[in-house]
Amino acid sequence: KLLDFPQDFLWGASTSAYQVEGGWDADGKSPSIIDMYEHPAGYADFTVASDHYHRFEEDIALFAQMGLKAYRFSIAWTRILPNGTGEVNRAGVEHYRAVIRACRKYNIEPIVTMYHFDLPWCLEQQGGWLNRATIDAFEAYCRVLLEEYGDAVKYWLTINEQNTMILHPGAIGLPKGGVLPSRRELYQMNHHMMLAQARVMKLCHAMCSQAKIGPALNLTAMYPETCRPEDAIAAHNWEVLRCWNFADVPVFGWYHPLAVRYLEDRGLMPDVQPGDRETLSGAHPDFIAMNYYSTATIAASRGDASDVSARAGDQQIMLGEEGVYRAAENPYVGKTKYGWVIDPTGFRYTLRKVCERYHLPILITENGIGAPDVLEDDGSIHDPYRIEFYEQHLHAMREAITDGVEMMGYCPWSALDVVSTHQGYAKRYGFIYVDRDEQDCRSMRRLPKDSFYWYQKTIAENGKNL
Ligand code: BGP
């Protein structure tokens, strides 16, 4: 018999600042890397996005109508500290105070991401995450957040999808000229982000004894393509390099042992300064926040360049590595219109693995299906594929709870339509439709999709229908 969802389960939904807010230079905000990067031609710009910056009251009122008990959003560093560090922009601080107040008005728990891809451009120009000074800047920024909102926010997320930023840096846009950092540089940046995260987890616990904080990683279990032992080793290789190496550092204080050997063999191990190990082992998360979209299926390397291929429907994301692993097809799972694998059982499987590895409660901070939703003449949006996706994933999560996994909540992507990282408004995720397309802002009206009403009912029944 399936266990029920916990009574205090955080039924929520997510967004991130740069993908939803617009107001890119409003009230003293400085540009972030996202504002300065190159994006594909014809792609929706971020200057308006879904205009949540100006319409958050209306949006949060709709979230309340949907029954949300939590809203996961990110704060734009560039609104709080336009110079990356130093002087605080009061207008930026007051903006998010108003957002938090709007949540509280409806008993919606704010779950706040401190950093979701949008590094201040001024810091990038000084070397970005390659520069150790960015660690201090991040700590200074987060100190302001904890001082200003520490009494009103209980749940904090440090860094969103650090593993995506390091392994697939092109996925969030390209620097002008298209040159990405080398892998050696990326792992050095990774080390600095880990240090920054550890310092902020420690600071959060020191400043806000009631608060809970954790990393938000994109985690995905890997299947071997066959029961050939070499396929199993390759699947394990990629699971370690893609997932566990990023979560082991905050939880256990150091890199995964297999990843260390991998990095050393290839000259990719970051420079570690005296005191770094103590910093990493001196802080601990209260939970693991996890973004889950799909699983991957992996085969043994062929030992040549044919191991590397683009992910289906996604030229920005290359998979496979010569001598390490190769991406394979899985005939047992479905796919979205954008080629992303749909695998609810893989969700249960990933949750079991994360629980088993870290023995920490899990908060889902993203899960969802991107689709080209259609607005009908009568203002309705029929998205049965989204309802089906959520039904299946929530059922799988309930099975995971029954298995013994401790779940804190579920914040799918996304609360309302946002700019997709590289497919603009062509690919939508929201429960609420935003009436605009790439170039034409049209009315910007908010229109509940069918999935909105489905989620409303599901929350009201605490998931008993699943
Ligand atoms: C995650 C990001 C989100 C979001 C989502 C959907 O990786 O944390 O910011 O965009 O993926 O991805 P996409 O917009 O590329 O479809």
Automatic annotation (TrEMBL):
Residue numbers annotated as active site: E366 (nucleophile)
GO biological process assignments: carbohydrate catabolic process
GO molecular function: beta-glucosidase activity
Record key words, sorted: Glycosidase, Hydrolase
Gene Ontology CC: one annotated term: cytosol
Entry similarity comment: Belongs to the glycosyl hydrolase 1 family.
Name of this chain's protein: 6-phospho-beta-glucosidase
Native source species: Butyricicoccus pullicaecorum 1.2
